[in-house]
Specification:
12 helices; two-stranded antiparallel sheet; alpha/beta; eight-stranded parallel beta sheet; TIM Barrel
């Protein structure tokens, strides 16, 4: 069986799950606000159910503070070091402190990348406040992960437009490895255009089950995009088992499927 790496997942804290901005997601999934801190064993069990060998588990930081802190993620990884790897989050408002925290996360905590969710800040990725972090990611040799496309939470979708925002970043930082999560819908074609145009731009499929991938993305994955698309779930919004539903119907050959499920993530995140 092909090894599978999940490029975007969370082990959520209770304050993350209960945040009001996720009310729309709870409505879509028919779940209520939880009252207990979720067990890390539940997350590992969900990975096991779908054969996920490794998960890149993300911290979350927004204007109101950390919803999942870097140190909490480090604690999760320490419990399952062979199954989880950390993705850092920082406070975008204070670039110098953010750079210092990113260095700590990479050097001291062993994290693999930085992720910033633009709609949390209402700041597109070509905003000046990101730029010191981009330079530091290049220096550290790590990817910058972000969200592209519309937002599930009731926040603006404008910051998720690949063109012009992420296009500007890729043009001005050609050495920066970029992973745009959540496919980019309804601007999927724009995201594919950027991944085709720039050698270091990639796409991850988190937040979508396989049978819901746009047809243009599937065609890209079958051909020249086989080295540019990474599997992701956005767990706990979507379980790994559900995210993989319909995988065999995508028409990927053996090489394209292996690169999608694991090979591209190994290369991009140096796993």
């Amino acid at each position: 069986m092909t090894t599978i790496i999940d490029a975007w997942m969370q082990h959520p804290t209770l304050r993350f799950l209960r945040d009001d901005m996720f009310a729309s997601l709870r409505r879509w999934t028919g779940t209520a606000k939880p009252t207990e801190e979720p067990s890390l064993d539940w997350t590992i069990a969900a990975m096991d159910e779908a054969g996920i060998a490794r998960g890149l588990v993300c911290a979350w930081h927004g204007p109101d503070g950390p919803l999942i802190s870097n140190d909490e993620v480090a604690a999760f990884v320490s419990e399952y070091p062979d199954r989880l790897a950390g993705i850092a989050a920082v406070d975008l408002r204070y670039p110098v402190a953010a750079v210092h925290e990113l260095r700590r996360a990479i050097h001291d905590l062993g994290f693999k990348a930085l992720r910033i969710v633009p709609w949390l800040w209402t700041l597109p990725p070509n905003d000046r406040r990101y730029y010191p972090l981009y330079a530091e990611c290049v220096e550290l040799g790590i990817p910058f992960c972000t969200q592209v496309g519309h937002t599930g939470p009731l926040r603006t979708s404008e910051t998720g437009r690949p063109i012009p925002y992420l296009d500007d970043v890729a043009l001005e930082f050609p050495e920066l490895i970029i992973v745009g999560g959540h496919i980019g819908y309804p601007w999927t074609t724009e995201m594919i255009a950027l991944a085709t145009k720039y050698p270091n731009v990639h796409i991850d499929t988190s937040a979508y089950a396989s049978h819901r991938y746009p047809s243009e993305l599937v065609a890209y994955m079958q051909g020249q995009g086989r080295y540019k698309v990474l599997f992701g779930t956005n767990y706990p919004m979507i379980t790994p088992r559900r995210a993989l539903e319909g995988l065999d119907g995508l028409g990927l050959d053996a090489q394209a499927q292996e690169m999608f499920l694991a090979g591209n993530a190994r290369r991009v995140f140096a796993i």
